[in-house]
Specification:
The chain has about 375 residues and is mainly beta. The protein has helices spanning about 1-20, 95-100, 155, and strands spanning about 35-45, 70-80, 85-90, 110-120, 125-135, 160-170, 175-185, 200-210, 210-220, 230-245, 245-260, 265-280, 285-295, 310-325, 325-340, 345, 350, 355-365. The strands form two sheets. Strands 1-2-3-4-5-6-7-8-9-10-11-12-13-14-15-18 form a 16-stranded antiparallel β-barrel. Strands 16-17 form a two-stranded antiparallel ribbon. A hairpin with a 5-residue loop joins β6 and β7. The radius of gyration is 21 Å and the shape is globular.
């Protein structure tokens, strides 16, 4: 099914480029069309050697052990004009299998599908409706846009994508971005059965100069049916700094809370700090080191079935080789530690507190 969808989408995009419909021939409706894509293949060796080839269940990208696989293959058509814009992207790979497992049918292969209209003649104010990338966090599905091969624990366990409507304003100096969102839920295209309550979110970004970015994002809503509604509150904050031509630092802190039971003001809390330091001595070579922690003792996001829940430290070392302008080769070593409970398995499938893995990926953007 994946290959048929991508071939069909590719054919339609090619046809769109070769012919222009009558309604688009008017000067006022001419819209530039851009076709682009991304392919990322990988191999990860988990030293626990899981029999089913599935890596720890809090990972949703690069999650298969000891097999050459496709993390994501994406093809997208983008339409951009002075008053309207739209994006349609289809994908396949282990990323979509894991992250969109709850979506029905062909929605599992939907990377994005949205249309936007400009709301002001004089201001950069837009309304976008559909499925779009999440406003939460500094890491997304496209690996080449991130500083490390794999995603951080907090990125894996917060939304990669959302559906709904958002209004976005970018001020004339391009230093401030403000966005308000009405959503179908926590990483949902379709709402859960029995849920009628929309979710809400915001995003504020400030770029005082080209070396500093500060971001604040939120989510308020529920991921449960109305009959057993548990309200969820989440905030993401990160800062990205550039030091000269070669150094970069991104650091974030996310915190969330969810009701322990319907109507109960008491909440289970979780939090996750993360920092990534990057050094790029040249355009062809870059190194990155990551340190992170995820504390979810109440088991809201990651259920372990152990007395102390999910309290996991992580670290990784990453090296990038840009073989060509759009071709990236990456290698990474990664370690997790969960104390005091052993939530991982060793080679003999016994509980242990540690997990080690090494991996490599090849990606091309076109």
């Amino acid at each position: 099914m994946h290959s048929n969808l991508l071939w069909t989408f590719g054919f339609l995009c090619a046809a769109a480029c070769l012919s222009t419909p009558a309604w688009a021939q008017k000067d006022s409706l001419k819209i530039p069309v851009r076709i682009n894509g991304y392919v990322e293949a990988y191999y990860v060796y988990d030293f626990a050697r899981p029999d089913g080839h599935d890596r720890p269940d809090f990972l949703y990208s690069f999650d298969r052990h000891n097999e050459v696989n496709l993390n994501i293959g994406m093809l997208r058509a983008s339409f951009s004009g002075p008053k309207i814009r739209a994006n349609l992207g289809l994908m396949a790979g282990t990323y979509s299998n894991a992250n969109l497992a709850a979506e029905p049918g062909v929605l599992k292969n939907l990377y994005e599908a949205n249309v936007g209209v400009k709301l002001s003649k004089t201001r950069n104010l837009w309304l976008d409706v559909g499925v779009f990338a999440s406003h939460i966090g500094f890491e997304g599905a496209i690996g080449a846009d991130c500083w490390t091969m794999t995603r951080s624990i907090v990125a894996e366990n917060s939304p990669y994508y959302l559906s709904g409507a958002k209004v976005t304003y970018l001020d004339p100096s391009q230093k401030w971005l403000l966005s308000g969102l009405v959503l179908n839920g926590w990483q949902r295209i379709q709402r859960p059965a029995g849920s009628q309550l929309p979710a809400f979110g915001h995003q504020v970004q400030w770029r005082p100069n080209d070396r500093i970015l500060l971001n604040s994002s939120s989510f308020v809503g529920s991921d449960t049916p109305d009959s057993a509604r548990l309200m969820r509150y989440y905030h993401d904050f990160f800062v990205q700094l550039k030091g000269g031509e070669h150094w970069g630092l991104v650091a974030g802190f996310d915190v969330g809370a969810q009701q322990t039971s319907p109507g109960n003001p008491d909440c289970h809390w979780w939090f996750a700090p993360v920092a990534i330091l990057r050094y790029a001595p040249s355009d062809q070579l870059a190194f990155a080191a990551r340190a992170e922690y995820f504390d979810d003792r109440g088991g809201v996001i990651v259920q372990t079935g152990t007395p102390n829940g999910f309290r996991t430290f992580g670290s990784s070392l990453n090296v990038d080789f840009r073989v060509a302008e759009r071709f990236l080769w990456r290698c990474e070593a990664r370690w997790f530690n969960n104390r005091p409970d052993g939530i991982f398995l060793d080679r003999k499938q016994r509980p242990t507190t540690d997990n080690w893995a090494i991996g490599t990926s090849l990606s091309v953007a076109f």
